[in-house]
Amino acid sequence: MTARLFQFYPSALCAKVRKILAYKGIAYEPVEVDFVDRAEIVALSGQMQVPVLQLAEDDIIADSGRIVARLESTFPQPTLLPAVTRGLHLALTHYLETQVTAVLGAFAQPDWEEYYARQGALQALFLRRAMAPKTATAPATAQERFEAVREILAPFDETLEGKGFLLGRLGLADFALYGQLWSLTFSGTNRIPSDFSNLRAFFERLDRLSAALEPEPA
Asked: For residue 204, is pLDDT > 80?
C-alpha cells in the first residue's frame, strides 16, 4: 500500500515529516485529520496527536521523533543525521520544537484560527481551547509577538549567511527549521520577517526540495 500521513496541514511537525518523506523519495498520501473528530487516528494509533505515519496495514508510527527514527532505520539514504554533526542536529531539533515553536506558534495563532474557522465553528472553538494553555504566557499584542519572533529567529538568519543549510550539510535540523517556518507561511502570506533574507531563501529552497537536491550557494 501507499504510505499515509495523517496530519494537520498547518502543523510544523507535519510539515517537517512531509518534507522528509519527499527528501527520501517515499510516496505517500496525506490524510487531513478533523480537529474535533479524531476517531480514525485513535483507532489506528491509540492516541490523538499528529503526525501519524502508516507505512503498511499494521505498521503505524505516531510522533514525529519516532517517525524520523523509523524512516532513518528503514530508509537510511539519504540520511537525516550525518555522522559528524548528528548530535548537533538532534540538539537543534529539540530546541526548535520546544522553544522556537512556542514563540512562532503564538504569533501564528490568528492564521490557525482563520484556517479552522473556515472548517466550522466547532473546529475553531476547539482550536482556541487547545491553544490557550500554550499562549497563556506569550506577549499580549501582535507587535510584541512579532518582536519575539524576530529575536528568536535572528541567530538562524545569521547562521545561514552564505550557507545553504544550518550545519553545512542538509540534515534533520534543517527540516525542523523548515517546519517551524511553515507556521509563518502556510496561510499564503509569508510572515518571515522581510529583512531576514537568508531565512526566506532557506525556506524557499527547502520548500522546492524533492529527492533531487539543488546545489548550495557558491
From this structure: yes
148-162 mean pLDDT: 98
Whether the predicted pLDDT of 212 surpasses 70? no
Query: What residues pair up with 3 in beta bridges, in sequence order?
Result: 28
Contact between 166 and 92 (Cβ < 8 Å): yes
Q: Is residue 110 over pLDDT 50? A: yes
pTM over 0.85: yes
**180 burial class (0-12, 13-18, 19+ CB within 10 angstroms)?**
buried
Residue by residue, DSSP assigns the chain as --EEEEE-TT-HHHHHHHHHHHHTT--EEEEEPPSS--HHHHHHHSS--S-EEEEETTEEEESHHHHHHHHHHHS-SS-SS-GGGHHHHHHHHHHIIIIIHHHHHHHHHHHHHHHHHTT-HHHHHHHHHHHHHHHTTS-SSHHHHHHHHHHHHHHHHHHTTT-SSTTSS--HHHHHHHHHHHTTTTTSS--S-TT-HHHHHHHHHHHT--SSPPPPP-
Return the CATH class of domain 3-74.
alpha beta
Question: In this structure, which topology does domain 83-207 adopt according to CATH?
Answer: Glutathione S-transferase Yfyf (Class Pi); Chain A, domain 2 (1.20.1050)
pLDDT band (50, 70, 90) for residue 217: very low
pLDDT digits over 86-98, tens only?
A: 999 999 999 999 9
